[in-house]
Specification:
Layout: H1 6-19, E1 24-28, H2 31-42, E2 46-53, E3 58-64, E4 77-79, E5 88-89, E6 103-108, E7 111-114, H3 115-121, E8 125-131
Antiparallel strand pairs: 1-3, 2-3, 4-8, 5-8, 6-7, 6-8
Keywords: Ribonucleoprotein, Ribosomal protein, RNA-binding, rRNA-binding
Subunit structure: Part of the 30S ribosomal subunit. Contacts proteins S5 and S12.
Organism: Arthrobacter flavus
Length: 132
């Protein structure tokens, strides 16, 4: 069966693994999911990710990051733009998550960017998710 929203599936798997204190989480691989994982790694929300061969196709394995006393590094993660309701942001009106403490992941003409990177480049786009 085909999946209607693979990004929402990825974020849900991350949210569930994070709340269950799992060290890793696996999901089917796609370039979009790998770019989201790149952004999460660069912003310090995950420890790392790797692409592995599976029985059919590839899988993406994400290593979750916890503090010294098992505090979660991801407090929350939320899908914003959905297949039934796309949400776009202009370059002049980019979202700020928790007053700048979190990040918004945007799909722009320059690729996937955080809200800060998009404001520096002066581009807008589709708001994929909020992470804090």
């Amino acid at each position: 069966m085909t999946m209607t929203d693979p990004v929402a599936d990825m974020l849900t798997r991350l949210r569930n693994a994070n709340s269950a204190y799992h060290d890793t989480v696996s999901m089917p691989y796609s370039k979009l999911k790998a770019r989201v994982a790149d952004i999460l790694k660069a912003e310090g929300y995950i420890a790392g990710w790797k692409e592995e061969e599976a029985e059919v196709g590839k899988k993406l394995t994400i290593d979750l990051k916890f503090g010294p006393e098992r505090q979660r590094s991801i407090a929350g993660i939320r899908r914003i733009s959905k297949p039934g309701l796309r949400v776009y942001a202009k370059s002049t009106n980019l979202p700020h998550v928790l007053g700048g403490l979190g990040i918004a992941i945007l799909s722009t003409s320059s690729g996937l960017l955080t809200d800060r990177q998009a404001s520096k480049k002066g581009v807008g786009g589709e708001v994929l998710a909020y992470v804090w």
